[in-house]
Amino acid sequence: MKDRVLYIEIAKRLGEAENILDIGCGEGKLCNYLAKHTGRKITGLDISGMGFKKAKKMAHKIKVPSLVECVEGDVGNMICFKDNIFDAVTMAYTLHHVNDEKRALSEIKRILKPGGRLIIADYIIEEEGKGSECHKFNFKTMRKLFPKEALSLLESKLLKSDLALLVAIK
To answer: Where in this chain does the record put each Methyltransferase type domain (predicted)?
Structure first.
């Protein structure tokens, strides 16, 4: 699946979200796509700031520099953000890099406003334990990351045989 097709799928699920956080933003491809096509403020978070220069350069090129901001930080400890600040959080091709998913989801729940959405797109495998580093979850185990007391799962679907999309609400 081309990134653009995935980005369209993610954008369709943002609803009325105005203040959006993209976790694992890297070089800002999704941040910039969302800023350009929704006109909304996008904050990118990445554990490494190496791609931020490219992200800002792209934002200027597509004329959305005031809508894109990149912040260096860890999804498991997002002390740089206040509670209940974001309307939506996206994670594209990022969850499999997270060491402590429960801690990360707890932090995401903390920074999401009530009614806020978490949109995750990530690689999956058919069976547990048979994948590479990028294929850490199967569809069932990925959906189990959302116990009722954390975030409520609204949607879970396969976009491709090895790519799942999940949408949860706080």
So the answer is: 21-120
